[in-house]
Amino acid sequence: MTQTCDAIVIGGGVIGLAIARALARDGLRVTVFERNARPGGEASWAAAGMLAPQAEADAPGPLFDLCLKSRSLYTDFAAALWEETRIDIELCPAGTLLVASQPEDVAALHAKLDWQTAAGCHAEWLSPSDVQNLEPLVRSHGALYLPDDWQVENRRLTQALIAAVAAAQVPIHCHSDGLTLCLEKGRVVGVEVRDERWSAPVVINAAGSWAAQMSANLLGLPARVIRPIRGQMVALQMPVSLRLRHVIRTSQVYLVPRRDQRLIIGATVEDVGYEKAVTAGGVCSLLSGALATAPPLAAASLIETWAGLRPLAIDHLPLIGETSLAGLWCATGHYRNGVLLTPITAEIIRCLVQQLPPPCEVAPFSPRRFSASAMVCSDATPPA
C-alpha cells in the first residue's frame, strides 16, 4: 500500500524539523522519517546552542555570510516558535568573549578583530582588567567581545520544533533506519521502509552524519563526502556563588552558561567514525581547559557527560539544495553550525522547493558541486 504526500524529510533533527515546519506552513503535506526512537536525539540534542558566526570564522567567505544571515533571523524565529508552541528556546543576547588564555593568542584575536570590523561586524577588544570586571571568574590576557554572537538552549529548540511540526499535523515516523529511496525514470519519487512505500515528488535528505550512508551510491558521491566528527561535552551545576554571564571561548574550550545554573563545557573534535563513547581523556581535556580559564569552577558539581556526531562535508561547506538526482534535495553537512544555520537552511529549502527566489546566495552550497568526475575525495583534518 502506497501513501502519498507533497514532501518527505529524512532526518528529525533541528534542520529536518525546521524544513518540515516551513513547508507545512506553506500548505504542503509533509512526512518526516527519523532513524532513531525519537526525533532530535543526535547532534541537535548534543549541541551547545551557540549562534556564533563571528567566533567560528577565521576569514570572510560564503559560509560566514550564510551564518550571519541565519543569525539575523533568530529573533523572529524564536518569537514565531513561542507563538506556535509556548516553548521558550531561551535566546540569550549576552554575547561572547573570545578569551586570550595565552599571550600568543592576543595577535590572532586582534587579526580577527581587524577583518571582522572591516566586514561591518561588531567586535571590541577588552583588556585583562575589562574581562575581569565583566567576568570575575575568568583569567585572561584580554578578550575579543562579540556582542552579537548569542546562544539558545538547543534542547528547548528541539522540543519547540517537535511541537511545531506536531501542531502543523506533520507525522514523524521513527525507527526508520532501513529507509531506501524509490526511483522511477531517473528521479526520486518517494521512500520505502519495511515494505511500506510513501510517494512524494520532493524528498529532502536532512539525515546529518548519516546523510551519505543513505544517498552516496545513488548520487555518485565520494564515500566520505559527509563524515561524523565526534564532540564530547560536560555539564556542571554551578553554585549560586559562581556565575558566568557570557559565552566564554578559548582555543581549547567553550563555556556556555544556562539560565538554570548549568554550565555546558565543550567540545572535543575527534574523527573516530560513528563511535559516540565518552572517554576519560575527552572529559579530562574539557575540564582541564575549563579550570585553566576559570579556576573557581573547581567548586562546581559534574552532572552530565555526553557525545554527539557533527556532519562534516569534505570541503567544510554545508550541502543545501537539489542534488544531481531529480527530486532529491540535501540539507546536511552543517558541522558545528547546525543550530545556527537552522532557520536559513529551512528558508532556502522552502524557497527552492516552491520555486521562489532564495533568501541569499546558495550556489556555493549546492550538493551538485560533488560528483565522481568533478572532485577527489579528501580526508582533510576537520576544523577545530
From TrEMBL:
EC number per UniProt: 1.4.3.19
Pfam families: DAO
Catalytic EC class: oxidoreductase
Keyword Oxidoreductase: yes
UniProt entry keywords in alphabetical sequence: Oxidoreductase, Thiamine biosynthesis
Protein name, UniProt field: Glycine oxidase ThiO
Origin superkingdom: Bacteria
Species for this entry: Chloracidobacterium sp. N
SUPFAM superfamilies: FAD-linked reductases, C-terminal domain, FAD/NAD(P)-binding domain
FAD dependent oxidoreductase domain span: 6-349
InterPro entries tied to this protein: FAD-dep_OxRdtase, FAD/NAD-bd_sf, Gly_oxidase_ThiO
Pathway the protein takes part in: Cofactor biosynthesis; thiamine diphosphate biosynthesis
GO molecular function, one term: glycine oxidase activity
Organism lineage string: Bacteria, Pseudomonadati, Acidobacteriota, Terriglobia, Terriglobales
